[in-house]
Design brief:
By secondary structure, this protein is an alpha+beta fold. The protein has 3 helices and 2 strands; from the N terminus they run βααβα. α2 crosses α3. The termini are far apart.
Length: 66
C-alpha cells in the first residue's frame, strides 16, 4: 500500500495591489464591490497578500463576528 506524503506548498504567496485584487475578484470567488469594500482603507498601490484579502472579504460579508 502506498503512503501519501504531505506536500508543502512552495509556491510564493500571491501579492497584488488593491486595484489588481478588485479586477481579479472572481479568482477568490468574490464580487468586485466586495473586494473594493474590504480593501477600502488601503492605498491604491499597496501590495496585499491573498490570505489577507480573503480574510477581509469574509469579514466584509459578515462572516467574522469577533
Amino acid at each position: 500500500m502506498a503512503v501519501r506524503k504531505e506536500q508543502k506548498s512552495d509556491a510564493p504567496e500571491v501579492r497584488r495591489t488593491k486595484q489588481e485584487w478588485i479586477e481579479s475578484a472572481a479568482s477568490i470567488k468574490a464580487e468586485r464591490f466586495e473586494v473594493a469594500g474590504a480593501l477600502f482603507d488601503l492605498q491604491d498601490n499597496q501590495q496585499v497578500n491573498e490570505a489577507e484579502v480573503k480574510r477581509r472579504v469574509t469579514k466584509y460579508r459578515g462572516g467574522d463576528k469577533s
